[in-house]
Amino acid sequence: MVDIIKNKKLFGTLCGIGAAVCYGTNPLGAQLYKEGMDPSSVLFFRFGLAWVIIAVVMLFRKESLRVTAKELKVLISLGLLFFASSITLYVSFRLMDVGVASTILFVYPVMTAAIMAIFYKERITFATAISIVLSFVGVLLLYWTPGGGRLSTWGIILVLISALTYAVYIIVVNRSKLQMSSFKINFYVLIVCALGDLVVALLGDGLRFPATATSWFYVSWLAIVPAILALVMMVYAAKYIGSTPTAILGALEPTTAVLIGIFLFGELFSLRLALGIALIFSSVIIIALKPTNK
């Protein structure tokens, strides 16, 4: 384990894979809509509970909360970006199927690569380009069905905003070079997200509390898995392997959603799904084996 951590590229790649798998369980939160909750309430309890857990962890680690004014600006920016990405995605879940939304969301690796190339002059290598194509085609195969119905225009717009803000979030984490632990970064990111969702809830129909044990189970899951675990690992991935590779590894997010459907909800496994998963894993292997840019 120590050797893996010392090998920053390997550790970053494993964190990128772990973050994608954890974040891929995010659509389970849509189950809370059946419990009478709305997007802002779901996200407030998700981020609020995650923040409490992170705060307890930092207390036991005896980690200082002190940051400079410059660092605070970056952390607030990260919080606002992740808040925007989350709220737009969760609202889109009410306008279209979560699988379709997850598919459209996966344009964020392309957005990440484009932003890095245009604004930071990052060269898109052949291996990176092939990985993007393989993962993108793989995701389309996971959720493509012939004769699908018309998609919600507002739903598509919201998912594209979610993808763009998430792409910028990954880039800011990578480029800011914050010299602090992932726990400390997410302590501030999560509180900004929770406060943002609280404001949206209070400006709307009010805050709706989880009313059943099932609701609290899903809220707890969202707080621990696609919030704490995914965010902590994503920070390490972006730091150690870069923004674009981290984004490409995100192809495992919709793969996770498909596997959850197969093993938990009894959805059928087809040759199309097998091919899509194979293409995505191929893109992940290419990223993992690609030499680190000097």
Description of the molecule:
The chain is an all-alpha fold. The chain has one domain. Helix content is 75%, strand content 0%. The chain contains 13 helices and no strands. Helix 2 runs antiparallel to helix 10, helix 2 packs across helix 11 and helix 4 packs across helix 9. The longest helix has 29 residues. The relative contact order is 0.22. The model has no long low-confidence stretch (mean pLDDT 86).
Number of strands: 0
Shape: globular
Give, in order, the helices and strands.
HHHHHHHHHHHHH
Mean pLDDT: 86
Cα Rg: 18 Å
Given helix and strand content, the structural type is: mainly alpha
Number of domains: 1
In short:
This protein has 294 residues and is mainly alpha-helical. It is built from 13 helices and no strands. It has one domain (2-289).
Describe the structure using short key phrases.
single chain, 294 residues, mainly alpha, 13 helices, 75% helix, globular
Please give the structural blueprint:
Blueprint: H1 2-6, H2 8-23, H3 39-61, H4 69-92, H5 98-105, H6 108-119, H7 126-143, H8 153-176, H9 182-203, H10 213-241, H11 243-249, H12 252-265, H13 271-289
Helix pairs in contact: 2-10, 2-11, 2-12, 3-9, 3-10, 4-8, 4-9, 5-8, 6-8, 6-11, 7-13, 8-10, 8-11, 10-11
